User: Which sequence fits this backbone?
């Protein structure tokens, strides 16, 4: 018996004509349907696949060519977070992958410039503002939590110009990367410029973003053979937020929540506090496109990476075989793109065929981590999330993974109000708490900014410095505050050197940010645990005494009241051999303690068995 809402072939053809032509491998009819412009090119089917996604998954190369000729989005992702490129990798077809990558790059350079036209329009229409975003990183793993840093992003927005200053570059090669940097976006009608400025090295990298690149040809962006080969010999990895079970509930105050709904004053604004549950970060890894030799190499690299972690921490890194992988063991045609021989009716009625799907049999593992977070929402915050803040976040999301994950979270269906404080998961072991404050310089005045008060008649005036600031006590009536931003704040400093366009970065071998964080924490705990050792974590990881960022990074890991100079002078500089020897000693000591503990437990077990035997033989 069919379930309510069952789609027969007539309904499917009526609702999903493009998908039907793709399913039946009818490129001529597909081209005619697209040419008519009567149908939505990006409409998703019940499996959340666009027509292009469906064509790639089924390996319909001719249909893929037709869809790309009509400029269907080659950047789309499906409900599991797999992009069109990743699905092309999964087919194991190098020709199809090269076709998708080539058109994706062409679209990015010509028609689709990361949504820049829409972002420009939103920026132009929004009021100018200054805002600070404080990022505080934390972890549920104790050792990692001790060494998590914080950073404050300072944001100036004037017209279509945006500048963002930060000091935390990211996490790379077993250390937090610090530096004074600015991202400057200067929006113009025909083309825009994005500058990445390194104030320590006095260099900048410039990207020109033209709304239409008429001079670019499709042949000019054909991907190199080695790029295709690299994608075909490396695993397909995606990390996505699963929010199907996401829920927001008000926190309660007082004993056992008898005090009513909880509110807090955050940066001078009374905010409602919510508990956020059902947030799950899922990392999926697919290898069905790889040869057995490549799988063994990947497995060996992964094993070597995890072998550096003690067994306790490896509990957090147990990859589980995905249920779809187990289900595909029952496939009727495992080597085809329709392993379950689904009919079009069965595909478009997934509730009647749970778990069965199309595409090559996936060899996939996944690991997940559930998060519970808090969210503070203010009803009268003088800034619009959708109109003012979101365009800036969208702009930065193109080049910054932290902003990308913040965007993914705040574009969910949040309760009403501005999120003055929000928690988002970054990795499996790392969370970020983002707090918005110092709006238009009401708490402290930054460079290039003049704060103005606006009265009910719309008149502007410079605030009296003797008056209390807007970020005052609970219940304070907030004045409407505007700002004037000096245009020079968006200019490059004099004397900075422009960097050339660098080649593709090719990361060799298996890398996992979670593994690196845990390894860093373990080495920290080992070094802290032996009072006789006088080796800092940074030196153990290969940082020399004259590293220019060393003092800043040590202050992150070893906070205290002593001055930076005193701390640096107190550290002895060992040779690399001494560093290796000290780490080896720490590991050996840990192993010896564990061996002793096990030996003692075995001896106690033997004594207990002996006592039991004697008690049974006594008369």
Assistant:
């Amino acid at each position: 018996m069919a379930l309510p809402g069952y789609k027969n072939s007539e309904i499917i053809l009526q609702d999903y004509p493009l998908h039907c032509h793709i399913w039946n491998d009818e490129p001529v009819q597909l081209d005619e349907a697209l040419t008519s412009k009567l149908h939505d090119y990006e409409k998703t089917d019940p499996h959340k696949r666009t027509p292009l996604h469906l064509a790639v998954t089924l390996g319909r190369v001719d249909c893929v060519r037709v869809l790309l000729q009509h400029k269907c989005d080659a950047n789309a992702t499906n409900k599991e977070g797999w992009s069109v490129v990743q699905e092309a990798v999964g087919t194991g077809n190098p020709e199809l992958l090269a076709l998708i990558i080539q058109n994706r790059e062409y679209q990015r350079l010509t028609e689709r410039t990361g949504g820049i036209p829409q972002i420009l329009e939103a920026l132009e229409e929004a009021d100018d503002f200054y805002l600070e975003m404080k990022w505080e990183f934390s972890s549920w793993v104790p050792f990692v939590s001790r060494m998590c840093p914080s950073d404050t992003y300072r944001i100036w927005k004037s017209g279509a110009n945006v500048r963002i200053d930060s000091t935390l570059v990211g996490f790379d090669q077993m250390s937090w990367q610090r530096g004074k940097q600015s991202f400057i976006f200067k929006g113009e009608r025909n083309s825009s410029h994005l500058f990445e400025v390194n104030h320590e090295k006095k260099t900048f990298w410039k990207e020109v973003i033209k709304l239409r690149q008429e001079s670019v040809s499709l042949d000019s962006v054909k991907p190199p053979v080695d790029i295709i080969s690299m994608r075909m010999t490396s695993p397909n990895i995606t990390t996505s937020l699963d929010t199907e079970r996401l829920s927001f509930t008000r926190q309660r105050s007082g004993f056992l929540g008898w005090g009513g709904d909880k509110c807090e004053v955050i940066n001078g604004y009374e905010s409602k506090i919510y508990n956020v549950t059902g947030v799950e970060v899922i990392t999926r890894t697919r290898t069905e496109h790889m040869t057995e030799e490549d799988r063994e190499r990947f497995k060996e690299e992964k094993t070597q990476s995890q072998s550096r972690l003690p067994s306790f921490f490896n509990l957090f890194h147990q990859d589980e075989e995905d249920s779809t992988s187990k289900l595909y063991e029952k496939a009727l045609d495992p080597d085809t793109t329709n392993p379950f021989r689904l009919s079009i009716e069965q595909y478009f009625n997934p509730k009647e065929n749970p778990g069965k799907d199309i595409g090559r049999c996936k060899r996939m593992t996944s690991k997940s981590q559930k998060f519970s977070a808090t969210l503070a929402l203010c009803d009268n915050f003088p800034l619009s999330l959708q109109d003012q803040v979101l365009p800036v976040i969208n702009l930065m999301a193109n080049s910054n993974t932290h902003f990308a994950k913040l965007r993914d979270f705040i574009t969910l269906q949040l309760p009403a109000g501005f999120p003055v404080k929000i928690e988002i998961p970054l990795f499996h072991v790392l969370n970020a708490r983002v707090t918005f404050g110092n709006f238009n310089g009401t708490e402290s005045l930054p460079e290039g900014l003049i704060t103005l008060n606006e009265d009910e008649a719309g008149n502007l005036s410079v605030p009296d410095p003797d008056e209390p600031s807007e970020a005052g006590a609970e219940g304070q009536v907030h004045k409407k505050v505007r700002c004037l931003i000096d245009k020079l704040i968006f200019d490059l400093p004099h004397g900075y050197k422009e960097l050339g366009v660098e080649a593709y970065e090719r990361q060799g071998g298996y890398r996992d940010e979670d593994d690196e964080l845990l390894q860093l924490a373990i080495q920290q705990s080992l070094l802290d645990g032996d009072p006789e050792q006088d080796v800092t974590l940074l030196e153990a990881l290969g940082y020399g005494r004259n590293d220019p960022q060393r003092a800043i990074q040590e202050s992150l890991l070893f906070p205290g009241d002593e001055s930076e100079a005193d701390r640096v002078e107190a550290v002895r500089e060992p040779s690399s051999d001494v560093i290796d020897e000290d780490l080896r000693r720490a590991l050996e000591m840990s192993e010896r303690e564990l061996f002793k503990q096990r030996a003692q437990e075995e001896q106690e077990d033997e004594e207990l068995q002996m006592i039991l035997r004697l008690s049974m033989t006594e008369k």
